[in-house]
Amino acid sequence: MLDRIPTWCALLSLALSCSAQAELRLGSPFSESMVLQRGMAVPIWGVANPNAVVTAQFGAQAVQAQSGADGRFMLALDPLEASRTPGILTVSSGSDEVVIHDVLVGEVWIASGQSNMEWVVAHSDDPARDQREATNSEIRIFKGAHATASSPLASVSGAWVVANPNTVGSFTAIGYAFAQKLAAQLGVPVGILDLSWGGSRIEPWIPREGFATLPGWTRKIDAMDRSIKTWRELDGATIAQLLNRADAFNRLQDEQFFTATLGTEQGMIDGYFKPTFDDAAWATCTLPNMFAGIDASLNDYDGTVWFRRSFNIPAGMSGVPLRFEFPAIDDSDVTYLDQTRLGDTVGEWSTPRVYRMAAGLSEGTHTLSICVIDIAAVGGFAGGQPMRVVREDDPARNVSLAGAWKWHKGSVVPRIAYPERSDPLKEPNVAFDSPMAMYNAMIAPCVPFAVQGAIWYQGESNAGQHAEYAALLKALVDGWRTVWKSPNLAFGNVQLAGFMAPAPTEPVQPGWASIRQAQEDGVSLIQAEGNGRAGLVTAIDIGASGDIHPKNKREVGNRLSRWALEQVYHASTGGWAGPLFKSASVQGQTVTVHFDHAQGLAARANGIPGGFAIAGKDGVFVWADAVVSGDTVLLSASTVAQPMSVAYANQNFPETANMINAEGLPMYPFRADVGRGSN
Length: 679
Hints:
Blueprint (H helix, E strand, L loop, with lengths): L6 H14 L4 E2 L8 E3 L4 E6 L5 E6 L2 E6 L5 E6 L5 E11 L2 E18 L1 H4 L8 H7 L5 E5 L16 E3 L10 H14 L3 E7 L11 H4 L6 H15 L3 H27 L3 H5 L12 E5 L3 H4 L8 E11 L8 E5 L2 E2 L1 E6 L2 E6 L7 E5 L6 E11 L5 E2 L6 E4 L6 E3 L2 E7 L27 H7 L9 E5 L8 H18 L6 E6 L16 H16 L6 E5 L14 H16 L11 E8 L2 E7 L5 E2 L8 E4 L5 E3 L1 E5 L2 E5 L8 E4 L10 E2 L9 E4 L6
Parallel strand pairs: 2-8, 8-11, 8-24, 9-11, 24-25, 25-26
Antiparallel strand pairs: 1-3, 3-6, 4-5, 4-7, 7-8, 9-10, 12-23, 13-19, 13-23, 14-18, 14-21, 15-20, 16-17, 16-19, 21-22, 27-28, 28-33, 29-35, 30-31, 30-34, 32-33, 34-36
Helix pairs in contact: 4-13, 11-12
């Protein structure tokens, strides 16, 4: 146990010793084939020997700065003109020199968010087309490695990759489509910093400077700081105490999980784990094997499956400590040896099992019984690892447990969340959902690399928390603009695509409809401060009811590029936004809804306008009949005598919503009271 204690101390000492005599190193984004931002100062930073002169040369420019006592340095090139001719950046200090080749100058953007931003070309629509068209080597993408940290880090693993038919499949599909359009329209190189992570919430991407704008978060951040400080000051005796407590806590959590899942499980009641149990009627299978390879009835089965077999302990392995080795078991298991519980594991679907018996076994026949608990996706025994019992002091002496086993389908069990593990040696606030954790490890190492802006696709993991999402989105943008010292940092957001089963009897739903409205509200808050370099494009028409990752990523990237070209670069694209709710008024039983960006307003494919709903005093929404009149839509419903509210595409998956403008861009979802703006 105590051999784990010095780990973090050793890492800290190593980091300090490295910084004391540092060779010249540059920040993470500075590497071969990178793209530098045109038209603004280009910061260059890194670590050199303490108090050393550092020189950077690029083209005709040469600039100098002195490193501090900690070796850190920062200097900046004057604004650069776009260049499609590869250049060389040289940074030197004393006898140390870093030379970076194939450097272009153009436009640089960050692509961030969760899986729909991270989704790669190879898994999107028509990847063969992207491979054929990947002929522009002036498009480069830097993919940052997934990481979390409790405080800002100096580096993130990654490398710039040049677009070509062999590499484009691994690119963020939205980021690549966005870059293609910018490169074609602007005629300059385009670089994308892909700093995204599937499944992530918004809070881990917000820097401390962003949370500082949210009064309700002050105490939370202070508490996080205290927990980190306490953890870093732990001594060995305290850690040993905490480890003992954690072991007891984790054991209790596991027992509660097994009680909840197996309390009424048939095999436990009937004693499948007892050596005297008669398994003659059970089927036979070969292990290791996943459920699907054992029997077709287990293909989509979530529940328990029991396995039993006898084995023989020879004289040379009797009476000595033994180790039982099994491959990874998906998801959880309880393993019995001669009716005694040998070991158990909760939720470690990718971890091989090792259970020990210090007292050993007598020579002769013994029985193993394993209850495998699968509560999601596939289940069973993975391959690639031994399945055997081993003499601890002489592993060459072992008995194979692979081969024929008896098996029997048990019971469907409740889907109980896996217990959270307590580990006092794990640094606080580095969990997947910890506030600031992804910013600290993935974004901070790229600050202040010169960029034009960011494109952002996230919100699925915050669905259900729409009340605070708008403020969090503004805090994200405010925080990034603060750390980059760029109040005009452009920010393009994607409104969530449709997802989940259609609901023809529910014209208005909570859930994703609410988070979409929060996304719009968040962008409006940013724009209200007078900065137009923030926009929202909608993907409402691109979704798939059964797929949270709709494959048409090219169109999302195209819409983001239209926003950027018009709002950031002031180029004409014919329009970047679909019809956007402006106001609604009522006369009799008819509501007239007005829109911005509504030239050519129509139903897609000249169909019947759909997706609209109205509600009366009772607040119950019903589907509305809709008639297009210029840039307005007239709504009515025979069952609503006095309309009070209107809505459009206000569902998780708005199957009938089909409104577009002359540019073919979809109408934004909305919900509003008559006579008011959207809410």
